[in-house]
Automatic annotation (TrEMBL):
<dbReference type="GO" id="GO:0005524">
    <property type="term" value="F:ATP binding"/>
</dbReference>
<dbReference type="InterPro" id="IPR033756">
    <property type="entry name" value="YlxH/NBP35"/>
</dbReference>
<dbReference type="GO" id="GO:0051782">
    <property type="term" value="P:negative regulation of cell division"/>
</dbReference>
<dbReference type="InterPro" id="IPR027417">
    <property type="entry name" value="P-loop_NTPase"/>
</dbReference>
<keyword id="KW-0282">Flagellum</keyword>
<dbReference type="Pfam" id="PF10609">
    <property type="entry name" value="ParA"/>
</dbReference>
<dbReference type="GO" id="GO:0016887">
    <property type="term" value="F:ATP hydrolysis activity"/>
</dbReference>
<protein>
    <submittedName>
        <fullName>Flagellar biosynthesis protein FlhG</fullName>
    </submittedName>
</protein>
<dbReference type="GO" id="GO:0005829">
    <property type="term" value="C:cytosol"/>
</dbReference>
<keyword id="KW-0067">ATP-binding</keyword>
<keyword id="KW-0966">Cell projection</keyword>
<keyword id="KW-0969">Cilium</keyword>
<dbReference type="GO" id="GO:0009898">
    <property type="term" value="C:cytoplasmic side of plasma membrane"/>
</dbReference>
<keyword id="KW-0547">Nucleotide-binding</keyword>
<dbReference type="InterPro" id="IPR050625">
    <property type="entry name" value="ParA/MinD_ATPase"/>
</dbReference>
Amino acid sequence: MEVTSNVLTFASGKGGVGKSVVTTNLAETLAREGHRVALLDADLGQSDAAVLLNEAPATTVWGAVQEDAALRAVPHETEGGVTLVQAANRPPPEAPDARDALYAALDTLLGRLRETHDYVLVDASAGTDGPVQWALDRADLGVLVVVGEPTAVADAYRLAKQLWSADPDYPLGLVVNFAEDEDDARSIGERFKAVTTRFLGQAPKTLGWIPFSHAVRRSVSDQTPVVRSEGPARDAFADLADTTARGQYALSPALS
């Protein structure tokens, strides 16, 4: 049966905030709960999803474009039941023709994923450049991943400003990562929303928070999603998946 999926693009103003870890673990959590989930790794500079999941897709979207091959070979089914699509495993050329061809192929694949999956999670590049704009333009909801570092908050603010300057009605959510505890997560979220409210006139919807955890660090080293083991991080991703599945994107009770 044809479905219209929710496309959520995860972005950050800068690297190092755990955006790809959040995206991959949420994708696997939703899949474990019985949803049809696709993960589109659109980070043209890093492409960490396959590494974090310890998967080896046969090809990438850019590889298919270069070889003039069929795009049906690109989607890769992971051990955790997620359809993984890699845009590129190394940065493609900056030439306009090459980028146009890549974006056209990505649009084609994204259209197919929308028809066959309940959720498409897009892991965007860090920053605010063209690939990020492409990923956010295609989303039903943009999700900013922030941590309690001043530079991360400032860069996330710049991205929010860019989005809302172009489209004041752009739907934007917030996930706080690496929080020490619930109070710390609430504080980070409230500070960020206070800044956007003061200078931009609105604030993103808080979707949830992920605790700082040595288990998460070990999972990255082991290339195994942390949600495959019980613990606080798994519980936090389950809460985030529940908010995602409800589709209301209201303020999380833990952070309201």
